[in-house]
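RECORD TYPE: inverse folding
INPUT: structure tokens
STRUCTURE:
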């Protein structure tokens, strides 16, 4: 009954709507993983799986050109781009406030914060701002050009508008590419702006980060190697079962310092 009433993404007549046809081997691997049920919350229960996750994350970081080796890039796999973007922005908040001597994870948020984001960005960025308690005004819109890409010339205006409203901007969230129009934001120019103003650069590469693996199309994500964090959906162009998202950080320490906790039963 389930097969009868489901969408058949492998059917020759299927027209893709974000979700790709999963590779059969990937589906069989997911079945095997479900049967083994080796949780990864603690290392002793998912030793091999933890090692494999690190290998996958390392491969993805290398593909993007993020720093390798000790003190280099790292990250985690999670469920979906929305959760991935929230995770990255939580890490951005922790890192940016820590630079001024405030530990938001321990002491909470004491000032209104904001992120600069394209008017065409995925709605999950605004949702993340709501979850973090920033309100809808926490997502400060940046204008776009005639191709619906973020206009870097409008970033100074958006930054001043946020500051005038009493908000501290901690990050710029770029899209590579946007969900609605498939537009890639100009990452090099945005990275220059972030460096100039000491802001975290986050790239929502849920749809387009996979182009880093293409010799023909890699130029579309030029500049992504300068990001502080990147979200990459493997269930879109990589042919893996949904949901499967990588949250990658230029500095691996950022992947856990925003969520550090201890429990007596965790070793």
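DESIGNED SEQUENCE:
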């Amino acid at each position: 009954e389930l097969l009868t009433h489901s969408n058949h993404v492998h059917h020759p007549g299927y027209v893709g709507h974000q979700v790709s046809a999963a590779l059969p081997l990937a589906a069989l691997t997911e079945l095997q993983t479900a049967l083994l049920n080796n949780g990864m919350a603690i290392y002793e229960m998912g030793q091999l799986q933890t090692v494999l996750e690190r290998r996958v994350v390392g491969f993805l970081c290398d593909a993007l050109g993020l720093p390798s080796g000790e003190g280099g890039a790292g990250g985690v796999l999670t469920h979906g781009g929305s959760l991935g973007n929230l995770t990255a922005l939580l890490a951005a908040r922790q890192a940016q406030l820590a630079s001024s001597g405030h530990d938001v994870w321990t002491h909470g948020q004491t000032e209104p914060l904001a992120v600069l984001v394209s008017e065409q960005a995925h709605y999950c960025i605004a949702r993340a701002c709501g979850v973090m308690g920033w309100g809808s005004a926490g997502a400060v819109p940046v204008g776009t050009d005639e191709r619906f890409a973020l206009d870097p010339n409008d970033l100074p205006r958006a930054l001043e508008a946020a500051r005038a409203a009493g908000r501290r901007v901690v990050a710029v969230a770029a899209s590579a590419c946007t969900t609605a129009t498939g537009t890639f934001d100009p990452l090099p120019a945005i990275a220059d702006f972030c460096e100039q103003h000491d802001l975290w650069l986050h790239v929502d590469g849920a749809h387009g980060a996979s182009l880093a693996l293409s010799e023909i199309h890699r130029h579309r994500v030029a500049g992504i190697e300068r990001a502080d964090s990147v979200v990459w959906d493997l269930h879109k162009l990589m042919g893996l079962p949904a949901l499967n998202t990588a949250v990658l950080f230029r500095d691996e320490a950022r992947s856990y310092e925003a969520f550090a906790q201890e429990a007596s039963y965790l070793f």
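NOTES: The chain has a mean pLDDT of 93.
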